[in-house]
Amino acid sequence: MDDLVEWVTRLFGDCRARSPFGVVLELDRAEPPLVAAVSPADMPTGYVGLDRDDVGGRIAFACRLQAFLDVALDQPVPRCPTHNLGLTPTRVEDEVEWCCPEGDFRCAVGEYELAAFWPPTQADSWAAPLLAKRFDRHGATGLSGFWVEDRDGQLVARVTARPDANDDLVRAAASPLDVEFTRAPAISTVRRWHPATDHEPAHEILTLTGVAMRLARLDGVLRRPAPEDECDFLVGATRVRLGPDHLIGEPGRPLLMDAAGVVFADEGDHVSCGGGGVPRGPLHTDTRFLFHAGQIAVYRDERAAQGGPAPTITLDPKQ
Questions:
Q1: How far apart are CA 236 and CA 218, in angstroms?
Q2: pLDDT digits over 155-169, tens only?
């Protein structure tokens, strides 16, 4: 069977898919017996227990979760898209599937949105997120952007693809929608020096071009991580993965270098990362926040005074 925490997360996603408002899940531990704290918006938190990790235990947990959400949401979840009846968790060999009481709809746990809502019937707010899940399911990578457009009543997936994208996988994921491609350049790593201004000290940036970045900022002192941190480096106490192509120096060498091996930053440097954080999972004991950076800037006023602006270097990413 699948990992228990992963399975509970997928189950909860199925139940939350048609919720009229937000619902938050938190688990007290990763193995049974565990308790799930389920918090609908502006309503008291409910507690649902899972006693054992087998098919019977998972079905019982799913039924308890559904019973609580039925009262909290005033509607059964997840529901059959045809009959609007609550689906029943059912044993199929060693797995759990959702089944309509009328018998004409079924899907695996975690598959509800794609089974119930794909293909979309209109280019609404559901279409693009569902397409994203389809791309992920089919392993379609190398995409810079995509959306669903209505063309005289026919939905078309418009995809901006980089050279490393597999067109066949993209088409398979979007099926039965037609796909219209726009080509984007390959991703590259760019290193630039920015002189001091009245508003910001001199700094150098290592950044990724050709991809969209989430607009969040992380500032602090660069630190070398411990092996158990499972990241590229620390900024203050936050674990960071760096998006651009780069090299991490062994102990005794500078911490961060660009793809050509030229030193970029070292422990003790003040840096600023742009990107976005990845929220922790449902386990309340999991406090290991990870920040995915699309760029990193290092501030060095003395470099500007000594040598002036550094040249701009564009590096191709490693294959």
A1: 9
A2: 999 999 999 899 999
